[in-house]
């Protein structure tokens, strides 16, 4: 950390300055500073969701662009991801309401060959906050693991995440296996991740592509409402 950065007192910055500083600190992988700043914004009555989306997801987008352009490399991006996770750990209990009735159960995981989990964790967190029960399978999931968990957990929804163009086709492998086993219609299948789009979601036979965590929550809620309407009384 430079002397100049040493001198910055986060609590003395205005909201806009603090958001900018957080984006810089995320870029530099400064987990402690990110956690301190998240707490400052909470004390200033910021909504947890706004803290997630503006400085944290916003900062990660800048990191992503510079990673793509060869300005940042894997070790730096890992540090940034670690700082992001530090911020998310403070926000998680605030986003996850306690005592809310369960709307449905979702098994979620990142697909085989893919170790990106920040977006998936965010979706899990927001879904839990909205009243869904979440079974998080983590990263690098093969089809067998998804199927076993869906069956064991008696889940309503399968959520799959992929961040690489090379791993996104694996989602189709999972959906095709569900079809082969006659289980496709037992589950609502939602997919997401930066390289996906609606067309891809349709092409692989998912029920919906979710652009972000908020869309995932709304989509899951609307599918669950339809499922309940269909259920025999
Ligand atoms: Co990776 N990486 N990475 N990386 N990485 C990307 C994805 C990349 C686009 C960077 C770039 O070039 N600009 C690029 C992929 C290019 C491509 O496929 N065409 C890339 C690459 C190439 C790689 C490696 C191959 C690099 C290498 O080793 N040479 C390697 C692959 C490792 C592997 O998986 N096998 C790799 C490694 C890594 C790190 C380990 C360093 C780290 C991951 C740390 C971690 O996740 N624990 C990392 C990171 C952090 C990124 C970027 C910079 C950021 C991803 C992120 O966390 N975004 C990323 C660049 C980018 O995406 N702009 C990049 C923030 C997050 C909140 O957004 O994940 O999109 P996102 O999630 C959103 C939505 O997409 C959606 O909701 C979320 C919240 O709003 N969503 C869902 C996501 N999943 C969903 C599931 C749902 C619903 C919605 O289910 C219902």
Describe the structure.
- The protein has 233 residues and is α/β, with parallel strands linked by helices.
- It folds into 2 domains: 97 residues, Methionine synthase domain (Methyltransferase, Methionine Synthase (B12-binding Domains), Chain A, domain 1); 125 residues, Rossmann fold (3-Layer(aba) Sandwich), CATH 3.40.50.280.
- Helices cover 57% and strands 10% of the residues.
- A 5-stranded parallel beta sheet has the order 2-1-3-4-5, with helices on both faces.
- Helix 3 packs parallel to helix 5, helix 6 packs across helix 10 and helix 7 packs across helix 8.
- The model has no long low-confidence stretch (mean pLDDT 91).
- It binds CO-5-methoxybenzimidazolylcobamide.
- CO-5-methoxybenzimidazolylcobamide binds next to helix 4, helix 5, helix 6, strand 3 and strand 4.
- InterPro entries: Cbl-bd_cap, Cobalamin-bd, Cobalamin-bd_sf, Met_Synthase/Corrinoid, Meth_synthase_dom.
């Amino acid at each position: 950390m430079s002397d100049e950065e040493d001198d910055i007192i986060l609590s003395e910055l205005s909201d806009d300055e603090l958001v900018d500083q957080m984006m810089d600190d995320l870029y530099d992988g400064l987990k402690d500073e990110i956690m301190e700043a998240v707490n400052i914004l909470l004390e200033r009555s910021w909504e947890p969701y706004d803290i997630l989306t503006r400085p944290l997801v916003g900062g990660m987008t800048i990191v992503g662009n510079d990673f793509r352009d060869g300005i940042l490399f894997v070790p730096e991006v890992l540090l940034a991801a670690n700082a992001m996770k530090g911020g998310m750990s403070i926000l998680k209990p605030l986003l996850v309401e306690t005592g809310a009735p369960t709307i449905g159960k979702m098994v979620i995981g990142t697909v085989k060959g893919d170790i990106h989990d920040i977006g998936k964790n965010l979706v899990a967190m927001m879904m839990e906050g909205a009243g869904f029960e979440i079974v998080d399978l983590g990263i690098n999931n093969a089809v067998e693991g998804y199927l076993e968990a869906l069956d064991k957990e008696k889940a309503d929804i399968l959520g799959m995440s992929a961040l690489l163009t090379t791993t996104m086709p694996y989602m189709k492998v999972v959906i095709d296996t569900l079809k082969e086993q006659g289980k496709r219609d037992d589950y609502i299948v939602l997919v997401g991740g930066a390289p996906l789009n609606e067309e891809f979601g349709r092409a692989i036979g998912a029920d919906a592509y979710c652009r972000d965590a908020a869309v995932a929550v709304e989509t899951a809620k609307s599918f669950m409402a339809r499922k309940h309407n269909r259920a025999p009384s």
